[in-house]
From TrEMBL:
Gene3D superfamilies, per the entry: Imidazole glycerol phosphate dehydratase, domain 1
InterPro entries (UniProt xref): IGPD_sf, ImidazoleglycerolP_deHydtase, ImidazoleglycerP_deHydtase_CS, Ribosomal_Su5_D2-typ_SF
A matching Pfam family: IGPD
Annotated metabolic or biological route of this protein: Amino-acid biosynthesis; L-histidine biosynthesis; L-histidine from 5-phospho-alpha-D-ribose 1-diphosphate: step 6/9
Organism listed in the record: Aureococcus anophagefferens
Protein name per Swiss-Prot or TrEMBL: imidazoleglycerol-phosphate dehydratase
Length: 136
């Protein structure tokens, strides 16, 4: 995607979901990270929705707890066809990876992923998948 933190999120998601996700995009990263993160999440969500079909025979509800870099996250998922997203995630930095990540963007606004855009991207992914997701 051109946004390393977003690439990392997508890779981690794909690994734990047991799927292959490949995304290549070109957009207005010179402005900010919004459209890149949002459009990739929308597209991946639509692909998941199509791949899941009518969801017949699937385990509809599940939860998982994971730890990464000393941070624990719990996800509760319902493949309900009633899209809803709720996040209790608390971020103590404006950008994923902190100021070092922001500085590594070499002044290109959209080269880093803001914490706010991560939440928005997860919401877009969830709604387009037509699922319900709660993160804490």
């Amino acid at each position: 995607t051109g946004v390393p933190a977003l690439d990392d999120v997508l890779s981690t998601f794909a690994e734990h979901a047991g799927i292959l996700v490949a995304a290549r995009c070109a957009g207005d990263r010179y402005i900010d990270d919004h459209h890149t993160a949002e459009d990739v999440a929308i597209t991946v969500g639509q692909c998941l929705c199509d791949a899941l079909g009518d969801k017949a025979g699937l385990t509809r509800m599940a939860s998982a707890d994971r730890e990464r870099d000393g941070v624990e996250v719990r996800a509760v998922l319902d493949l309900s066809n009633r899209p809803n997203f709720h996040s209790d995630l608390a971020f103590d930095e404006e950008y994923l990876g902190g100021d070092a990540a922001a500085d590594a963007g070499d002044g290109e606004c959209g080269a880093v992923l803001s914490s706010e855009m991560l939440v928005h991207a997860l919401e877009s992914l969830t709604l387009e998948t037509r699922a319900t997701l709660h993160l804490e």
